[in-house]
């Protein structure tokens, strides 16, 4: 829904884009891939009761 899309954009701004401007040397293809994996697999997500995604795998 629209709220989830808006929240995703806000998360990207707060947790990724802001850091890019402060620490541009951190960002290359490997770092971006690592951040994406962390965001999707290890980060605690409030929408799923603060559990990382790997707890939901069978």
- Straight-line distance between termini: 26 Å
Order of helices and strands: HH
Q: How much β-strand is present in the residues?
A: under 5%
Fraction of residues in H or I helices: 55-70%
Q: Which stretches are low in confidence, meaning pLDDT under 50 for 5 or more residues running?
A: none
- Could you tell me the radius of gyration in angstroms? 13 Å
Tell me about the largest β-sheet.
none
Multimerization state? single chain
Count of strand segments: 0
Structure commentary:
The chain contains 2 helices and no strands. With 58 residues, it is mainly α. It is globular. The chain has helices at 2-22, 29-42.
Short description:
The protein has helices at residues 2-22, 29-42. The protein is mainly α and 58 residues long.
Main attributes of the structure:
58 residues, mainly alpha, globular
Fold topology:
Layout lengths: L1 H21 L6 H14 L16
